[in-house]
Write the structure tokens for this entry.
Amino acid sequence: MTDDDLSAGILRRPYLLATVGSCALVFMVAFEAMAVTTIMPRVGRELDGLELYALAFAAPLATSVVGMVVAGNWADRRGPAGPLYASVVLFAAGLLIAGTALSMPVFVAGRFVQGLGGGAMTVALYVVIARAYPARLLAKMFAAFAAVWVVPSMVGPFAAGVVAELVGWHWVFLGVVVLVVPALAMTVPALRQMRGPAGSTSRAVPWNFGRIGWAVLAGVAVLAVNLSGQVPAAGWLIAVAALLAALFAVRPLVPRGTLTAGRGLPSVILLRGVVSAAFFGAEVYMPYLLTERYGFSPAFAGLAITGSALAWATSSGIQGRWGARISNEVAIKVGTWLVLAVLLLELAAVLFAWPPLPAIICWTFGGAGMGLMFPRLSTMTIGLSEPDAQGFNSSALSISDSIGSALALAMAGMIFNLLAAGYGFGGVFALTALIAAVGLLVSPRATAAVAGSRPAVLAPK
């Protein structure tokens, strides 16, 4: 390593192009994840497929779990270059399929492929950074990744709404495709200068087909829950069976005791999935509620999500700066209570036909609650992990996010389609409030072992 390499930062040579390219790829994944929330009501109406509304969100979450597991195993075996190239191709292919779809089933198929590529891309990029950058720059790179997640959260929903109104929702997907290739090209220098993992040996890492198989089963089970509503006679029976299968398949992918809320790390992982399920299971219906009931345009409906994202970033920054003055226990308890209170208020707004402004303001406080607790759950996961288990536990945290959100979306979709005459939104908020209440029960077990520990400062998301 040269003296120039030692003095360089992430925005200086030889890392500048790799930094910009990697952050651009993460930005595109984040933008699509946030932007689609705003345009989905319009997509569903134009493609005559509102019954598949929840599936369009759950599909990429389910397939991302498979992408994460396969990419991680592949990167351990042969390095991250192969999985990164493959993931970018899949992500771009999913965008093309969704952006050119003329029917809702084709659109959902594009979302399947997009999620598979997006999940794999995230894991591959993390390995690229770990092997191409010196240890002193890793924290800065991961902070940069966190920052590029926040920006799409703030501008993505509104920007997607504007694009949908001006040139059509198709370009929310197709416009991103043209940016993928140059972003990937900028990461090539990083791929060329990669080193092997620290402490590696010449022994080849085998394919972990067992773990991949469990990930596939979990994804299929989640999708079965979503599709069960299309079977009128036995839909609920299929849903229950698929839900049990999903939980069974997740067990090998998370630490022992996670599903039974074991004290410490298992409950931290479980709580992350529960609060994700509560918040994101409701969030995707907020633009739908504002456009369907209050006649908002897609752009202005997206502002509700933007306000929540700003509150998320703000409260996340506050808890980071205050450090030990806000304990893990307080941050998680207050955050969970905020999310539960907001969901109950949204339920009241729907049932009692409140005007839209209270609903939008309430949702902003929901984002604040998530920003308060989410970084602490990430910090606690790393702090409670042995060094040789940090990768597995970090992966488990992401899997808990995805599976929790996907299952909540599946159940919310079934309830929304079942309840007619305008009660569907009320059913969604009632379900997610119940899930948040479960999170309130789990939170003491998550903080029991580490209530007095000094929290580390972590980037927002």
